[in-house]
Design brief:
The chain is mainly beta. The chain is built from one helix and five strands.
């Protein structure tokens, strides 16, 4: 049974930033990755540990590069 992001301390996920751009990362649950839209990279989470190495990151595909828009607050 593989570990998932639930094994990563949520406080750690809140303070991690992209090692290249220092920008905020977005957790992608379906792929179990931390996304840096600014760098165009997805950093994997393996065994509950975020792997923050550029050499281990995968480039985002063109369709993935659009940063999701925040939901508007209800009026």
């Amino acid at each position: 049974m593989s570990q998932t992001s639930r094994d990563v301390d949520p406080a750690l996920l809140e303070v991690l930033v992209c090692p290249l751009t220092k920008a905020t990362l977005t957790f992608q649950a379906d792929s179990n990755e931390l996304i840096s839209y600014e760098a165009g990279l997805a950093f994997p989470i393996r065994g509950g540990i975020p792997i923050m190495l550029e050499s281990e990151a995968r480039p985002l595909e063109e369709r993935e590069r659009a940063k999701p828009k925040a939901n508007a607050a209800p009026a």
